[in-house]
What does this fold into?
Amino acid sequence: MDQMMSLISHYGYVVLFLAFCLGPFGIPVPSEVTLIAAGMMTAQGLLHPFYTFSVILLGMTSAVTAGYWTGRLAGKYGLLRGIRRFEGYRKAERFYAKHNGTALSLGYLLPLVRYFVTVLAGLNGVPFKRMLLVSYPSAVVWIGTLYGVGCACGQPIMKLFE
It folds into this structure.
């Protein structure tokens, strides 16, 4: 937590955007910790609430949109044909086919899954408008909840890490 807060205080909003935008592409940044840290820093007056929330949302929606189009193009051009032979993928695909809107919404609650469900949506040819209408509001709720926890409970959380 301290390391994340140090990065944010040093590099500001750029770190927040990159943490959420590049997360699904192999940059191992713990999103939940970053959100809570940003909320805590906002509560201390170190970050502006509107800018912070907006930059995080922009990073997250950029990532899920890129994930969707990666899946959509990979599906269209057959780039991930071999993945269909893995049982784990087939189970995920069956679950997604049965609960696609719910899977997109609830996917935000699970680390790493939030990025994979949009790729799966693209692979399965879900229309972009549908993905957008389900995924973006889910991002707002997920970000708002954890950011709000950081803002409201920042001091007690910091005492846990001392």
The longest helix spans residues 128-161.
